[in-house]
Design a protein that fits this description.
The chain is an alpha/beta fold. It has twelve helices and twelve strands. The protein has a seven-stranded parallel beta sheet with strand order 3-2-1-4-5-6-7. A five-stranded parallel beta sheet has the order 10-9-8-11-12, sandwiched between helices. The longest helix has 18 residues.
């Protein structure tokens, strides 16, 4: 198959979208050729059968130039691709959908988010397939939906670090935003006694992307300061995608407090890398092994979260290693990236 892929950004180092570089590597393995059109281009290392075009955001182009470049590229390359795969950005479907239908190109949209917008509803009408990670990841009623789970590069995650220095490390990875609910974690830490705070390190990993996020991050920092948690809680900011496996492997627990909806991929990566999860999203239940109650926060209150962290901290080493191994094994079985990409391509046949 000759495939056209449209996405927001190609940059293997990007903290949020760097993972898509791995997707392209897998697409390249099973497609004759891949043409990628992205809004912004950074660093990448892709096989010869992958061609990357940018609409020009990295050159500070404007919306008019983006639009001209988009139509020029999909027209000039129209005989060099047979099908279209749009990643998350449904606006591409609205812009190109009628042309692709006229040219008899099948179009698939990957979308995994709780939000339902008018543009998403319109895009659903123009595509042949919709792909998502869970049933809660696409909330527009449609018979076109294919639930395929996430896919990650398991081989990047070597499992838990065997270096133990007596510090219990908790990570919370995701942009600093109310939807990610890092405040709940800070509130739980406020309830710890002085003794419970010893040999504890909490890393908040993620940047800010909107003015509302900036205000939220400032509030979190002030709360940490007022609670006397500055020696425990570290704000790491954004980190390159390639550093994520190392960070995860040194964490004992990975906390994700996003509400019910699509699976947050970082928790899947955490389980692959040896961090025990604490999640609020009940969509994770099928993937949490034999004892999901150990990792699921049933009530989003600080005391419950504090107790969950302390329970995992008090596990003996043998139990901890056993749980880590079982979760990694399940992740390798359920979420290999090769399986996901093959499932996507098979729908176009």
């Amino acid at each position: 198959m000759k495939l056209l892929i449209l996405t927001q950004k190609i940059d293997k180092n990007d903290d949020l979208l760097g993972f898509f570089h791995d997707w392209l590597l897998e697409f390249a393995k099973i497609c004759e050729s891949v043409i990628v059109i992205c809004l912004q281009m950074g660093d990448y290392e892709l096989p010869e059968n992958v061609t990357v075009y940018s609409l020009g955001k990295e050159k500070k182009g404007g919306k008019i130039s983006y639009l001209i470049n988009f139509y020029k590229l999909i027209y000039v390359e129209r005989n060099n691709y047979e099908a279209v795969f749009v990643h998350m950005n449904q606006i591409y479907v609205l812009l190109g959908g009628l042309l692709w239908r006229y040219w008899e190109k099948k179009v698939g949209l990957w979308y995994t988010h709780r939000a339902v917008t008018t543009t998403l509803k319109l895009a659903e009408k123009l595509v042949d397939f919709v792909f998502t990670s869970t049933e809660k990841g696409f909330n527009v009623p449609t018979k076109k939906l294919h639930v395929l789970d996430h896919g990650i590069s398991i081989e990047k995650f070597s499992g838990p670090s065997q270096h133990y220095d007596g510090v219990f490390r908790v990570v919370c990875i995701g942009r600093l935003s109310p939807i990610k609910n890092q405040l709940l974690l800070v509130q739980a830490l406020e309830l710890l006694s002085n003794g419970q705070r010893e040999h504890l390190e909490v890393l908040l990993v993620g940047g800010v992307h909107t003015q509302a996020d900036k205000a939220y991050a400032a509030m979190l920092r002030e709360r940490v300061k007022l609670a006397g948690l500055e020696e425990i809680v570290k704000f790491e900011g954004s980190i390159p995608n390639m550093r994520m496996p190392e960070l995860i492997s040194h964490a004992d627990v990975s906390v994700n407090l996003a509400p019910l909806g699509a699976l947050d991929k970082v928790i899947i990566e955490s389980m692959a890398g040896g961090s025990l999860p604490i999640v609020l999203n009940q969509s994770f239940i099928p993937f949490l092994g034999e004892h999901p109650a150990m990792f699921l926060l049933e009530h989003p209150d600080p005391e419950s979260l504090k107790q969950k962290i302390m329970m995992l901290r008090e596990l003996d080493m043998e139990s901890r290693l056993s749980l880590q191994a079982k979760l990694r094994e399940a992740t390798a079985r359920d979420f290999p990236i090769a399986k996901l990409i093959k499932n996507i391509i098979s729908r176009y046949a």
